[in-house]
């Protein structure tokens, strides 16, 4: 720690450096040695924000960390003179009168002496196994305990001082402090519910620290409070929030709600309960059983107010085993549609040569499979009922792989890859697959002296052949069909190989319509009797060998035949290869692309994305009890029971291996009358209408930015903006921004039928 020592005698300042694990005794020794004074005559005070603590630091083995001393804060030195009086720099007397904590009937956790949230002092309760009472002497954070609000001022309007990148904590705390159920609870007497024996809790210390801070914020008028003691407790039990780095307000909220629950858990000894499978029982029976088992181990204010229940349905893709469970939730993390969908560009080729290749861009779920991609492409390219699509990846101008498993996840397809789809007649599916790889001669000035190099180019063409015994003429005819859409309109009537008896344009026109069986069998036989129109070579999978194909060549039967097509000058004259060049990638991205403001979406579309069925990831496989193996099951969530306070976390931050991003998408959320009736799978008689009362906002980008909060004082029916220590009123129309990160809703109770009808009608509009 770096501490700024202020000597009250001459107001001089000196920087003291000590480990935060050093004791206050070591601090006294170092200060006294530095100033040349006797330790018995020295008093060191916590002087945070120029406010002297209620009592000097004790000379003990207590660490500076436990004493809540912060980085770069002030400490005050007073020295006793012979007459018992210390003089400050102005000559004023500083009487060293021992200050004891005030004694009153109030416990830290509240008590009968509390009146309207205002008190006059403390009484410290010691709990077994807890060091809270001994280390909580600094809970006033440099202010008189529970500074009484001025006459006529309302509580709940105090800000929180920023202790150094603690705006994330201030934002989360203001949202919780202004939750009516929490405020009412912690302003009352909750000492009997402190659970000091729970091994999953913090011996009650976190709940006591939060309760003390809440009382200050509701009783100090508009004077900002420095949450030093609370931050000290937080760092002690959650080291990830120690120090002065920026953190995520939602992660802190998750820890606080869970920690408060364990500290206030009414269950002292948690029973062991074996979970049962649904076994085809009615959902109501299974849901009630799961909630009863949950409440047998978890029973607190947090469960009563914040926890709901959702239905989780898992389906095995192999044996179709259905597993239904009902799980509790504290908040709902809603993905923004742009984070759960994926835009993909795929080039569609005609396997019968009836049309030009065309790229199509479709949008589908990120966790979708090839079947979903094929369905989206089928709609985009107006696929006929008797047609199918064969997906493939093109790499180095040849087919790298075919996506023949419809269940394969599209997450295996990278954005920089080239994906094509071949449109074919279903009647031909399953026959011999013919792949045509294009090759051309790269000419240079030295070509006259040495042979030119042949290189692959463009996208391969794929078609299906029905004949089992194929000849070179059959391959030649198939190539003619595939190339027919690429034919140049101004090409001459000259034959391909310079022969007068080659494929004439008139003949090619006939072949272009061969998929409609417009070419008579007799004509095709006549064409087969001529010389081959193209230079074709039979090759293997790696193109390591080439064997020229003649008209009477007989090809060995197989499921996949790979042929090289050499684009000679004559072929170039008749056909335009530009249509098969420069395939678009799946999705064009780049680090230099500027982030544009995205289209506004609604909270309901986020909820729809959250409840959409999706397959589990490869790292989150489900063990199927029927298959006795881990399976990549599909998962579907449904809302079953909603809590009184419903918290929505908008998932604005996304991370990948190479890119981190924050979505500034504006989410349009209702302030009043959020009706979730249509999402509920059970009807328990409760109201499913909610009103907004708090928002945690995040401005800026990743690794920094700034957090603020909007909170509504229910009694005043007025919104306020909490920006660290600054608090100001704000109109209801201004609280909707693209910075909204965590939304807090409160159930609207006692709705009449007429009001419900009006709400429903307004929502539909």
Automatic annotation (TrEMBL):
GO terms for molecular function: cysteine-type deubiquitinase activity. It is an enzyme of class 3 (hydrolase). The keyword Hydrolase applies. It catalyses: Thiol-dependent hydrolysis of ester, thioester, amide, peptide and isopeptide bonds formed by the C-terminal Gly of ubiquitin (a 76-residue protein attached to proteins as an intracellular targeting signal). Residues 158-748 form the USP domain. GO terms for biological process: endosome organization; protein deubiquitination; proteolysis; Ras protein signal transduction. Gene3D superfamilies: Cysteine proteinases (3.90.70.10), Phosphatidylinositol 3-kinase Catalytic Subunit, Chain A, domain 1 (3.10.20.90). Transmembrane segments: none annotated. Belongs to the peptidase C19 family. Recognizes and hydrolyzes the peptide bond at the C-terminal Gly of ubiquitin. Involved in the processing of poly-ubiquitin precursors as well as that of ubiquitinated proteins. This is Ubiquitin carboxyl-terminal hydrolase. It comes from Citrus sinensis (Sweet orange).
